[in-house]
Write a structure and sequence with these properties.
By secondary structure, the protein is mainly alpha-helical. It has three helices and no strands. It has one domain. Helix 1 packs antiparallel against helix 2 and helix 2 packs antiparallel against helix 3. The longest helix is centred in the C-terminal third of the chain and has 27 residues.
Length: about 90
């Protein structure tokens, strides 16, 4: 079990580092917005992995709130981008 937890942690850390590079170097604001949404998904996966490893369900409300925040943020950015394209 420890090998799986360490492997998942390393993979999530590598994914987080690559996403941070995309947030910094993103050529457009939409690339940065998508990378931020992916970073939020990585954070949710890390919290879920920690909750599963420790067998503690107290992190579930945090996961729900972060998932709703990510969805609302993605929808609002998409609406902003389409309105900006209409002008």
């Amino acid at each position: 079990m420890i090998v799986v937890a360490v492997t998942v942690t390393v993979l999530l850390a590598i994914a987080g580092a690559l996403v941070l590079v995309r947030i910094i170097r993103g050529p457009s604001i939409l690339d940065r917005a998508v990378a931020t949404d992916v970073l939020l998904a990585i954070v949710v996966a890390a919290i879920a992995m920690e909750a599963a490893y420790s067998r503690d369900a107290t992190a579930l409300p945090v996961l729900v709130v972060l998932a709703i925040l990510g969805f609302v943020g993605s929808v609002s950015i998409a609406r902003f981008a389409t309105r900006k394209g209409d002008q």
